[in-house]
Every structure is written in C-alpha cells, then in structure tokens.
Amino acid sequence: MKHFPFKILVLCILLPPLLYVVSLNRMESWLQGRYRARIEAIYRVNTQALLTGQTRLEDALAKNIDVFLKTLWLPRLGVRLQVMVVSGQGTIVYPSSGALSDDNLFATDPITTANENRRLLNQGLHLDVIVVIGHDTPFSVGLLLLFIAAALVVLGRFYRIGVRAAQTEAQARQAEMERLRALQEDGSNRLNDLLSQRAHLEGQLVQIRDELSKEKSKAARNESDLIEEMATLEQSLIERQTLQQQLEAQMAELQARLEQETAGQGKSERAKTKAETAFARRFEALYKQLIVGERAIKGFVDLPEEIKIKAEEVLSQLNHSPDQVPVKRKVFSKKNSPTVLEAVFAYKGRLYFRRTGPNQIEVLAIGTKLTQTKDLAYLQTIEG
Question: Which residue from 82, 90, 320, 324 could staple onto 130, CB 3.0 to 4.6 Å apart?
C-alpha cells in the first residue's frame, strides 16, 4: 500500500520473536534472583533444635523450602524451579535423599543427629536456585502471544491511518477534477460570448466600411472622423482577439490537466483489471474442481491483503475436500436450482458457492460483511 510504511511492517514481524527471546532470558534471571532472595530469607532453621538433635538439618530445610514452593503459582504455568542446598564438601542437603520417617536412624539417636547437623553446619551451606522457562510452556506461549498481539495492534493502527490517507487523497483528486471541469465549462461559456461579440463587431465593421464607402462619394462627411472611428473599432477588435487567445490558452491548459487526471484513474482501473485476469488464470490452473465466477474474482481482488490468504484457503479446501468446509447457513434454495451455501473466513469474510455437479462446485461471490447486502442481492438474480 502506498500509505503503509514498510519499515513498520518489518519491525512488527521481527520484534515479537526478538523481544520474546530477550524477555524470556531476563525473566529467568529476574525470577532466579527473586526466588533466591526469598528462599535465603526463610530456609534458615532453628539452630538450637539442630544442635540438640531434635531434628535433622535435611528435614528442617525440606520443611521450610517445600512450604515456600507450594505457595508459588508460576510453576503451574510451566516455570521450572530447581532448588539445591549443598554443604562445603559437596554433600547435598536439599533435596534430601532420605525420606522423613519415624524409623530413621538419626531420629532415634539425638546425639548422632546433633553431631551430623553440627558437621554440616561447620562445613557451610551453599544455596543454588535455577529457574528454567521452556518454550512450550503456557507462560512462554502467553508471553509470545502478548508481543504478537501488540504488534498486530500497531499494524492495525498504521493500516487504518493508511486507509484514511488513501481515502483523503482520492477525495482531493475527485474535488480537483470537479474544479477543473467547472473551470473548463466557465471558459467555454466565456469563449462563446467572445465569439459572439467578435461576430457582432465584425458585422459592425463591415457596416461601417459600407457606410464609409458611401459617405466618401458624397464628401459631406469629414473623412478624418470616419477614419478615427474605424481605427477605434479595429483597436477594439484587436483587444477582443487578444483576450480570446488568452482564454483559448487557458482552456488548453485546463484540458491537459483534466486529461492527466483522467489518465491516472484509467491506469488504476487497468491495474485492477490486470489483477482480476491474473487471479482468474491462477484459480483456473490451481483449482480444477472449481468454477470461480467473475463477481467472485472481483470480490477477491477487493479484499484486504490480510484476509486474501484465508479466502484462498477456503477455495483450496472446496477444491480438495468440499465436505469439510464449514457452512454457516443456506442462503436460499430456488425451485429446480442448486442450493447456495455461505462459508465464513477470517471472521468478516463471506464466500457463497453451490454444487453444480457430482465433482463440480461454482463459487458465486466473495466479499466481506460490508458487501454482504450487495452480494445477497446479486445471488437473487442468478438463475439455476
């Protein structure tokens, strides 16, 4: 489209995946730091209970961390959180390999439990938190859809701006053509008036010359007065001729501008006709089982570019698997004529077709909700 910026289209195509990748990495780093800080704040246990052997260090850590993990809601959206607590010598303290049990050896021996707890605490504990967000999780898919939706909103806004600019330009062009036609008509009227005045003046000049010829023979009239009057009339005639030439030049310029505007409109119509011929050949070559009518081809060419692909998907499905095409309704069914069916595409697109044989389908019209009234009126005129 002339008024649609190509750079915006490229940005709206490239930015969503780029922002998605960057945002996913930043989100993982941010969540990792946030969860690490929160776990560090709550995973510290009661040192007195550990040193007296009342509970194992592994069990106390597991209790505190597991309670925290159960309060998180992001893992339900596919965010994987891995938490590990390791002692200074590499012993994994959490998650513990030993299950909580009343029969556990440390639970029955408080002194041994206390010594083991003291040994692990003396080695020092290291907390490691890893956050992983897969590309097939609801969270990542939702994030990608959010960026795509934002890009579509931007595209829609610029598309509407382009459409309004095109409409404004077309209206301005039409107004200019009307103004030129009015100027041409006014110039023609003025030229006709001048031609009438010229004929009248030429008649007067002839009459005066005749009278002058008669008066010369009589010698009763002053010859100098007659010559002066004749010169005045000739000067007036010259001025009229000069004005006529100026008006003719203005009319020629207006005619040239009008023809230029008319040629611009003709070029647009020829481009549209060329597009209709190209699509007619394309449909005839690709869809052997379909008969795509002239009105359907014109309606397809007038469709917005973003839903032409959806319309052609319906045509392909009609050609290969017509029984799988979702039919919204039956438009009407005349006596002794095939039933006309309506299919919907891209929400606002409409396609009307009917079966004309066992393996033959005729596409009667293609349009949108805006052209639906005209399309239905056209279908009423079709004979079986």
Answer: 82
Higher pLDDT, 27 or 352: 352
Structure tokens at 358: 């066992």
- 292 close to 315: Cβ distance less than 8 angstroms: yes
Is 45 within 8 Å of 60 (Cβ atoms)? yes
* Cα(369)–Cα(152) distance, integer angstroms: 21
Q: Can you give the pTM of this predicted structure?
A: 0.36
- Which residues pair with residue 289 across a beta bridge? none
Whether 51 maps to a domain, the answer reads yes
- Residue 359 φ then ψ, to 5°: -125, 35
Looking at the chain, the whole-number percentage of residues with pLDDT higher than 70 is: 84
- Name every residue whose Cβ is closer than 8 Å to that of residue 328 and which is 6 or more positions away in sequence: 342, 343, 344
DSSP state, 292? E
**Number of domains present in the structure of the chain:** 3
Residue with tokens 């103004």: 179
Question: Is 99 among the domain residues?
Answer: yes
Distance CA 332, CA 45 (A): 78
Q: Which residue segment(s) compose the domain that 26 sits in? A: 6-134
- The gap between the terminal CA atoms of the chain, to the nearest Å, is 40
